[in-house]
Amino acid sequence: MSEGDIWDSIPDDELEETIMERLWGLREMFPESFRSRVDYSVRLGIWATQMGFVLFSLLRSIVWIGATTGLVMCVPYMIEKERAEMEKTQIEQQKKLLLGPTSSSLKSKQS
């Protein structure tokens, strides 16, 4: 018996074929130029996806570094500025209470 006869004697529903085996068999249907273009396109797509992940990771790191640096540098300054303004406001309120409401009008007349 030849090899073709062996496969012909087995019913089609008993043959099990993986997807990769089917795809490998289909490659003979297409010319080499088409297969090489598809191969190039698939490789380019994989490369672009990998570069997308790398770019996303890089941008995520840059945003994290920028945000944390900004918080560490700006928040203490803003808190200190707010504290100084509150202290200044409290001193002005204490002066008004001690000297009375006429102290502000006396200051404007002296100037």
From TrEMBL:
Subcellular location field: Mitochondrion outer membrane
Matching CDD domains: TOM22
GO cellular component: mitochondrial outer membrane
Sorted UniProt keywords: Membrane, Mitochondrion, Mitochondrion outer membrane, Protein transport, Receptor, Translocation, Transmembrane, Transmembrane helix, Transport
Any GO BP annotation: intracellular protein transport
InterPro entries named among the record's database cross-references: Tom22
Family listed: Belongs to the Tom22 family.
Name the record gives this protein: Mitochondrial import receptor subunit TOM22 homolog
Source species: Dracunculus medinensis (Guinea worm)
